[in-house]
Specification:
alpha/beta, Rossmann fold, globular, binds phosphoric acid mono(formamide)ester
Length: 326
Amino acid sequence: MQTNLHGRDLIGDLDFTKEEVETVLDVAWDLKRKRALNEPHAYLRDKVLAMLFFFSSTRTRGSFEAGMAQLGGHAAFIESKSTQIAHGDTEKEIGDIFGRYFDGIAIRHCDWGIGNRYLNLVAEASRSPVLNMQCDMYHPFQCLADLMTIMEKKGRDLRKKKMVVSWAYAASYSKPISVPQSLILQMPRFGLDVTLSHPPEFALMPEIMEQAQAQAKKYGTSFEVVHDMDEGFKDADIVYAKSWGPLVFTADIEKGAEVTKKYASWITNEKRMELAKEDAIYMHPLPADRNIEVTDGVIDGPHSVVFDEAENRLHAQKAVMALTMG
Ligand code: CP
């Protein structure tokens, strides 16, 4: 067990070593058990977390806020629009000043080319840990909850299991690429053979791909890329199919929408799920574009673990907060 997490930031998925992530998971399961038994676990009494949002949220806000209360502390919900950031408060000022008020600063900032830099600049100036509630590059707390869920469903030894991280079509908006990037970085460390499946225009950031390849090599797992949804799903133990924007290809919204329209057939439906293993699980971080990105039959069907996955956000985040802010 690693015990040196006090005061540490969690911005990118590789900020914590594999052993440190294992510690997080152990604590998360302990906290999940305590909550199920109604056992008090106020490890953060009198501590306060700032939750600074530049982008909307359902699960992330709810789970961080509930988690801090369950740990005996408080979470302050701060919408960037209601602050003086637009009037000139810099990253340094937010980091230095909020670092004095708060015991942790959690930030969601998904703007392409801006969000990750913002978090890192705040972290440089803050004496309190900075926690990434999703940026343009990473969604580490989603990924921790995903890993926890996969282990609950498939066991802690994930060697020789195939996970497909697949692009899926959605019409609602150009979603960040942070979820697939986090998954391809973290999952190889835990033994999963990862297949990334996407149309050519939906490639992820080259430096993240290189890091994912390096992780797979280091941990003796496979990492491959295909451009065919059916091929990706074939014989998968874990199907993780969601939409993301063609941001590396083009940051232009209209051009991106045109490109996206070409791939409306990339939907997760019952027929495609049949290509995966019989006991495959279907995962999605939510929100999903129902019957566009995934059919109701799949997301509400027997393979789906999306509600357990959403619940695990709470336990994984409480674990990281208790370890870093305690
Ligand atoms: N999965 C996830 O991060 O959900 P929200 O955008 O609702 O927070």
